[in-house]
Design a protein that fits this description.
Blueprint (H helix, E strand, L loop, with lengths): L11 H57 L7 E2 L11 E6 L4 E4 L15 E4 L3 E8 L4 E8 H37 L1 H11 L19 H49 L4 H30 L4 E7 H15 L5 E4 L7 E4 L1 H18 L6 E5 L4 E6 L6 H6 L17 H12 L2 E5 L9 E6 L6
Parallel strand pairs: 1-3, 8-10
Antiparallel strand pairs: 2-3, 2-6, 4-5, 5-6, 7-9, 10-11, 11-13, 12-13
Helix pairs in contact: 1-2, 4-5, 5-9, 6-7, 7-9
Length: 450
């Protein structure tokens, strides 16, 4: 099984900064290579010219020296005036190859055994040879190649060391230039990042580059369409709820008035059944409206709200509605947890979770509610252990763990839709954490992106 890995997004500013720095560095290296290549050829020409010039200057003096000595065939070594490094050494030989004159530290082993005219090279030296006196005398001058290599190396280093200073300066300069050029794009990004999920107003596009303006305008158009769709949905939900509640409430009132006018008997029993049906229909319509809101947009608000104060109000209201049921509430010391979840959505979520805990919990046992400073809500009610297979199905619509309890199986489905819509997480545990039985719902609000 192959897992597709998502490539980590790259910063445009970082990419451009590094790219420009690498481009300048490579251009500098390319120019340096060209300069070294040209300079190497020029240096070789200069060294060769100096080598030939030296041979042509020494040769007449060597001829006079050899001809004027008493024994022209005797080898003679030129003594140095003081110790020094000789970069050029030479040999003067006759046409038989016998050495007649040599510089003071010349090593005959490095010279060519054959008398050659002009330039030639070995692995270690560069040579130049010429002949005189009808080719009876031959001079050959040797220059170590290390001298040329050292000169070329020093020149390359002198051109290369500014690059060490250039790279960080180029990177800093590129970074500043790119950041300045992208300042409007960064401001656009920061404005979008700073918004909550409920803020659907258009984003300013002034100053953006022409390449980004079409994207920004498309985003604004999408935000405008989304806002209009959400407003239309909210309006439809509110109107539908009102239109459903009114006739159902009217029908209930009429049934109750009729019940007062008829005597006990089968007709009154039938009216009682009709009343029960109408109350169930009223409850179903309310749940369906809540589900429509939970599955629609508008679950996040533009401004954060204190969930703990909202929770306390909802619990107090539920306690008044169920005075015989014990509800315990445990809150953190600071009594504040800010979140961008819509207050109405949060109220629907808590009421459905509380109704589920009250209906399915053991009547004589309390419902325990706790909210931590990290944004984790826990609701625990006493109940028999729910099988794992059933526990996994509780998020689905019209699924109940206990069919003997009145209800439609929509409470946890509504809660799951709200939790998923706002980006929170919800888990079910049975038995409850640290207990042998019971049912626990845990909602983590810390994952909501404000």
């Amino acid at each position: 099984m192959t897992l597709t890995q998502t490539k980590k997004p790259q910063s445009l500013q970082k990419t451009l900064g590094i790219g420009l720095t690498l481009a300048v560095t490579l251009l500098w290296i390319f120019a340096l290579s060209g300069a070294v290549y040209v300079s190497k050829n020029k240096l070789n020409e200069l060294f060769d010219s100096s080598l030939a010039e030296t041979a042509q200057r020494i040769m007449p003096l060597a001829v006079v020296e050899i001809i004027n000595r008493e024994d022209p065939g005797q080898a003679q070594q030129i003594m140095s005036f003081k110790a020094h490094d000789e970069h050029l050494v030479y040999l003067v030989r006759n046409n038989l190859g016998q050495i007649l004159l040599q510089s003071h530290n010349a090593d005959p082993a490095i010279f060519n055994q054959t008398l050659l005219i002009g330039f030639n090279s070995s692995t270690t030296h560069r040579f130049y040879g010429i002949s005189a006196v009808q080719n009876t005398l031959h001079i050959e001058i040797a220059e170590p190649l290390t001298q040329r290599r050292a000169a070329i190396t020093e020149m390359a280093i002198s051109l290369l060391w500014p690059l060490i200073l250039l790279i960080p300066l180029c990177f800093i300069g590129s970074w500043v230039f790119v950041r300045y050029s992208l300042r409007h794009i960064l401001a656009y990004r920061n404005e979008i990042e700073s918004r909550g999920g409920g803020d659907l107003t258009t984003v300013k596009v002034e100053g953006l580059p022409t390449e980004i303006i079409p994207i920004a305008e498309s985003v604004n158009s999408l935000l405008d369409r989304l806002q209009r769709a959400l407003e239309s949905e909210r309006s439809f939900t509110a109107n539908s709820a009102h239109e459903l509640r009114t006739p159902i409430a009217t029908a209930l009132a009429q049934i109750q008035r009729l019940q007062q006018k008829v005597s006990a008997g089968s007709i009154q029993d039938d009216m009682g059944k009709i009343e029960t049906t109408l109350r169930g229909l009223s409850s179903l319509s309310e749940k369906l409206m809540q589900l429509a809101k939970a599955e629609g947009g508008g679950l996040l608000s533009a401004e954060p709200h204190n969930l703990i104060s909202l929770l306390q109000l909802i619990v107090d209201d539920s306690q008044r509605s169920h005075p015989a049921k014990i509800i315990t509430l445990t809150l953190p010391n600071n009594r504040e947890y800010m979140s961008a979840i819509d207050p109405d959505a949060f109220a629907i979520l808590i009421r459905n979770l509380l109704d589920n805990a009250i209906k399915h919990g053991v009547y004589a046992q309390p419902v325990e509610i706790s909210f931590s400073s990290k944004g984790i809500l826990n609701i625990v009610n006493a109940a028999s252990v729910i099988p794992t297979e059933t526990l996994l199905q509780l998020r689905r619509r019209f699924v109940r763990s206990n069919i003997s309890v009145q209800g439609m199986g929509l409470g946890l489905a509504i809660a799951d839709a709200i939790v998923s819509g706002v980006g929170a997480t919800m888990t079910f545990n049975s038995p409850a954490t640290g207990q042998k039985d019971g049912f626990e719902v845990s909602v983590d609000f810390s994952t909501i992106k404000d």
